[in-house]
Write a structure and sequence with these properties.
By secondary structure, the protein is α/β, with parallel strands linked by helices. It has a single domain, classed as ATP synthase, F1 complex, gamma subunit (Pyruvate Kinase, Chain: A, domain 1, 3-Layer(aba) Sandwich), CATH 3.40.1380. It is built from six helices and five strands. The protein has a five-stranded mixed β-sheet, sandwiched between helices. The radius of gyration is 30 Å and the shape is elongated.
Length: about 300
Amino acid sequence: MASAELRAIRRRIRSVESTKKITRAMELIAASRIVKARERVHASRPYADKMIEVIRNVARASGDASDPLLERRDLTTMGVLVVTSDRGLAGAYNSSVLRRAERFMVEQRARGVELRLFAVGKKAQTYFAFRGYEIAESFLAVTDQPTYADARRIATALMTEYRSGAVDAVDVFFTVYRSALSYVPTRTEVLPVTPPVSDDENEGTAGSEVAVSYEFEPDPGVILGRLLPRYVESAIYGHLLESSASEHASRQRAMKAATDNAEELIKVLTRTANQARQAEITTEIAEIVGGAQALSAS
């Protein structure tokens, strides 16, 4: 009986060691991807900042020029884009943003607002489909290593919905990457586009530098119409990059915790195996001694 128990414990140890190798490998892969994802996040920010500056200047120069993407309408139907991963084993990364998005959607429905749901990542698709939500469109195989082409495809779908009047606004739920240990589920509005305002404009013109005058060719309104789609694309791209970095950071933490737990379990099982082996040896010795005593007595 003791021998069978010992064999079972040793099989369990081998199984846990095999799992530990997998979680350790996944931890290292996630760690290497975090570095690349973080670099891409930082590299994209100067472009986004410059885009905001250019749109601010063009919007100021265009005066009363209008564009469908700037039009703010009464809210009857809202588009909701939820960004998650395609794979699991990423800790609370997916569940945090999904729960926040669902709470918001329940609140909007209670106010009588219709919803059109767009899912980025298989986790969002399966989560909402299982709960009976109708998904207008899904975008898969995007968040692991997002490209600008992915962002353009998503942004084009959202802008088409907005221009056609199918939705009156679009909010995005994604995860902001702050550090390897900190990432926050966030909601932001991408449509209609609100022309960004400079700090000087927020605080008044006192103490600010003299505004620079630009000459535009073609008309500022035409330029603005061409820039706004690029602005939406760059915003979506930034959200995808932030979410990707957060996903890899969360997966690294989850796999490190799994590896640490496996190591602790191996220690416990090894100690149990040693105790079982000692008990087995003690039993064998007792049997030998008992047999010897029986022989000598006879």
